[in-house]
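Researcher: Re-running this chain for the archive, since the previous output was lost when a drive failed. Same request as before.
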Amino acid sequence: MPELGYALSSEEHPPDDLVDNAVRAEAVGFEHALISDHYHPWVQSQGDAPFVWTTLGAIARETADLRVGTGVTAPMIRMHPAVAAQAAATTAEMFDGRFFFGVGTGENLNEHITGERWPAFEVRMAMLEESVDVMRRLWTGENVSHHGEHYTVENAKLFTLPEEPPDVYVSGTGPKSARKAGEFGDGLVSTAPVADLVDGFQEAGDGPRYGQATVCYADDEDEAVETALEYWPNTAMPGDVSWELPTPKHFEALAEDVEAEDITESVVCGADVDEHVEQIQQFADAGFDHVYVHQIGPNQADFFEFYESEVLPSFS
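Model: Regenerated structure tokens:
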């Protein structure tokens, strides 16, 4: 039986609403949450992209038991690993053992903003592996100097540290990244119920496996489809496009070709309890032991009521 969690979608909600949603998620029975770390939304209709570390600090103070992680941060280009290590250490201290650090190789959409080049996947993965090594060394509290292939750190020492360093869960959306997650990560984060990804991760390592299920709850199925089409057309775009396009306007251009039937191929829309349960079960059957649910659009209140009364009891 998978542990169920909730996706805090920074692209769709302002920071105060994200905090309120985290509080509500804890109250209805979700046990964990992952919060996206974006500089831009995918498309402008989503409307938001707050600084995740500020939001996390507020969530830490307003929740008691909910475990929270980033889903995911790219501690590589937009944010140097020495800075990311400090941000994660402070956040972990505030959460008192309830924080985990989800990391990945990022998207051009968020990382190009400093004017640095956007490297190929193999280079980004090497950067991520070096970044995680640097951060783990800093979390020891020792003085760290590092002169690596991609990063330099000189005489850096973190003074605010949690009792235990945060676990690092690595995004794996393809076979190469899933295997890498097993090699140097403490867990796996992914977005599709694909057993091969879990198998690749477990062949190289071990740890919890987090999968994101995307839904759009509404009493009327057509209304749910229209909401998903407006707020999350990127779900129907090819994965390689998601990593490469630089601005929301580029995604909006592609979104013009996304149709309702494209959305329903990957998103459960409407109020059929069995369909929501089946979506989660697909992740469990693929080997994910944690499933966090992303509700598309502004109507989070009705989603919480529906999941509290109809869906969560199926997994208790």
